[in-house]
Design a protein that fits this description.
The complex is a heterotrimer. By secondary structure, chain A is an alpha/beta fold. Chain A has one domain: Rossmann fold (3-Layer(aba) Sandwich), CATH 3.40.50.300. Chain A contains eleven helices and twelve strands. Residues 1-9 of chain A have low confidence and may be disordered. Chain C is mostly helical. Chain C has helices spanning 2-25, 34-73, 80-118, 121-127, 132-169, 175-184, 188-214, 219-252. The mean pLDDT of chain C is 87. The chains are: A alpha/beta, B mainly alpha, C mainly alpha. The A-B interface holds A 66, 69, 71, 91-92, 94-103, 105-107, 109-112, 122-123, 126, 170 and B 35, 119-120, 123-125, 127-135.
Amino acid sequence: MSDASFLSPARCPEPSDGTPPVVCFSNVYISFLGPAVLADLSFTVAPQETRILLGPAGVGKSVLLKLAMGLLRPSHGSIRLLGNEVTAMTEEELFPLRARTGMVFQESALFDSLSVRDNVAYQLIQARVPDEEIDQRVREALRFVELERTFDMFPGDLSGGMKRRVAIARALIRQPELILYDSPTGGLDPVTSTTIIELVMKQRDVYRTPSIMVTHRVQDAFMLCTHRFDTGVGHMVPLPKGETDPNTTFLMLDQGRMIFDGSLHELLHTEDPFVREFLE
Amino acid sequence: MPSNTIDRTAKDIVFTVQEYSLFAWRALVNLFTPPRYWPDFLVQADIVGVGSAAIVLLSGFFTGGVLALQSSATLAQFGATAVTGRFVSITMIRELGPVLTGIMVAGRNASSMASELGSMVVTEQIDAMRALGVDPMRKLVTPRIASTIIMLMFLTIVADACGIFGGAAVTVFMNGQDATQYFSEAYEFLHYPDIIQGMVKPLFSGYIIASIGCFYGMRTTGGTEGVGRSTIQAVVTASVLIIFVDFLLTQILLTLFPPL
Amino acid sequence: MIESTLKSVVWSVQEYTIYTWRAVLCLFSPPVYWTDTLVQADTIGAGSALIVALTGFFLGAVLALESDSLLAGFGATGYMGRFVGMTLLIELGPVLTGIIVAGRNASTMASELGSMVVTEQVDAMSSLGVDPVRKLVTPRLVATMVTLPLLTLVADAFGLVGGGWISIVRLNIPWHKYLTDAYATAGWPDVIEGLIKPVVFAFILASDGCFYGMRTTGGAEGVSRSTIQAVVTSSVLILFADFLISRIMIQLFP
C-alpha cells in the first residue's frame, strides 16, 4: 500500500460545469478481514449514461453496487451519489437518498411474506400513498415488465425470470434517478435473459435513467450496445451495422482493480491480455 | 497457542456484547422518534401474544400442579398442608410464572424471530429494504421488541392464573382439600412486593427475548445453515440471559421492596 | 374443521408412537452405530455443559433468595438449605435442564435432520441401504438419555453452590450448616425421582426433535418451522411429564 493516494484520499471533484456526475467513486478501498476486495477504484457515471460492469465471478462487482448505495461502507475513499458524499452520511440520513435510487438484486430479494402488488408498492405504502393510486401505479409498473397478471400472486409462485422482472418493477416504480442492476440475468436461461436485457434496454431508451449493470455475460453486454428499444413496435431492434449506443460504456474489474474504463469500440481494441481473454 | 485462542475468544465476546448493546439501544430509542410502524407492531403482538397463549396456558397449569403436589408433600411433614395455596401463588407469581413463560416464549419466538430475520438477511431482503429507503431496525426490530415486552407481561399473568388454577385442581381433586381455603390462602398472603416482582420481570425478559432473537437474526451469515445456527444460538442465549436477569432482578427488588 | 384438526392430531400421535417404538427397537438388533452415539453424546453433553452449569448456578441463587422471604413467612428460615437442595434435586434441576437442553438440542436435531430430509440426503441414505432411523435417530435418543441425567447432576451441583453463595453472602448462614441441611434430608426416593425425570425428559426431547426433523416438508422454511415446533412441543411435554412423574412418585413413596 505505497500508493500516495492511499495516504491522501482525493475527494470527488465538486461539479464545475452544469452536469455533475450521478455517481462518482474516488480511490475507494474496501476489505473484509483480509486482502482488499476493491482497491483504488475510481470511476463516474454521467447523467443518462448506462455503465456495464464486466468481470469474472467473485471480483467484488456486487460489493461495488452496495458501496454506491451506502449499503456497505468503504475502508477508505470517497463516494458521491446524486451530489451527496455517501461516506460522510449516517444510516438515518441515507434512507431518503436511497429512496431516490432503485436496485435490482441478484436473487431478486422479493419479500416472501408480501404479495407481488405489495412488493412493487413497498415504497409507496411506506409513503402512505392512497390505495387506488397505488393499485394504478403498480399496474403501470407491472405492465412495463409485462407481468400484469401476477398482481395478486406471491413471490413463491413465480419463476426465477418472473421474480427478476417483478424486482425491476419494484425498483422502477418511483422513477428513480439511478438504477443499479446486480447480475439481472444470472442463473437464467438464454431466452429469459434476453427478455430481461430487453427490459433494461427499454428502461434505458424510454426513461433515460442512468444505470450501472453488473454482468458476467459478455453477450448481454454486447446486445445492450448494439440494439435499441423501439417503442413503436414494442420490442428491441438492432442498430444499423457499425453503430453502437453512445451512452452505453464499459467498466471491467479484475482482482479488485479497475482494469478497463471506456466505450465498446475501445473495449474491442484494447491491448490488455486479461480483457482479451475474458471477451473470448 | 492456547493463550492466543483465549485472547481471540475474549475479544470476540467483548465485541459481540458491544455490538449487541448498540443494537438493543438503537432499537429502543427508535420508539421515541418517527417513523413508527404501528401495523407491524400489531401483527407482531398478535404473533407473540395470541400465538403463544396456548403453550403458556398449558405450561402454567402443569407447573402450578407440580408445585401443589410437591409443596403439599413437604408441608405435610410440618402438618401445614393448609398453606399450599399461599405457597403456590407466591412462588408462581414471583418466580416460576415469569421465568417459565419467558423461557417458553424464548423457545417459540426468539427462535422464530432469528430464523425469520436470518432468512431475510441471507436472501438480501434486508438489503433490498434498505435500498428502498426503509430502515430495517425501525420496520422489523423495534415493533418486535415493543410488542414482545407488552405481550410477555400479559402472557405471564395468564401463566400465573393458570398455575394457581392448576395448583387448585391438584389440591382439591388429588389431595382432597377445601377449595375455599386454598384460594383465600392464595389471595390473602399476596402483597404488593410480590406483584411488582412478578410484573417487572417479564418486561425485562420480553426485551431480552426480542432483542436477542432479532440480533442473532440480523447478524446471520452463511446461507440456510447459518439461519439454523442463529436460531439455536438465539434460543440458548435468551434462555440463559432470562435466568441470569431473573436472579439480578430478584436481588434488586428484594432490596428495594422487602417482603412484608 | 375441528374434526380434521382432531384427526391430524391423532394421526401425528400415532405416527410419533410407531416411529419412537422403531427407534427404540433398533437398539436391540445389530447393527448399532456406537460411533454416532458417542459423537452425539459429545455434542449434547459437552456442548451443553457450560450453559447448564450457568443456569444451574443462577437458579440455585434465585431459589436461595426467594426461599429466604418465603420461608420467613412460615417461620422456617432454618430450612433454607433443605429447601434449595430438595427443590433443585427433584424439581427445578431436572425441569430447567430439560427445557434448556430442549432449546439447544431438540432444535439442533430437528434442523439437522430437517435439512437432510429436504435436501434428500435421508432418501439417499435409504437408497444406500442404511436405515435412517437406526443411523440417525437411535444414536441421538440413546446419547441424550445417557447425558441428560449427567447434565442434570451438573445443574444440581452448581445450583447448590449458587444457593450456598447467596446463603453465605446475603443471609449469613454458615456453609457447613447449609450443606448438611441440603444433604441430610434427601432420601433415596428423592434421588431416584431426580434421576428418573431427566431420563424421561431426554427421551421426550430427543424423540420429539428427531420426529419433527424427519417429517419436515417444504424447503428451508419448513426446516425452521420444524425446529420451532420441536422446541415448543418438547418443552410443554417435559412439563406435563414432570407433573405425571411427581404424582406417581408421591404415590409410590409417600
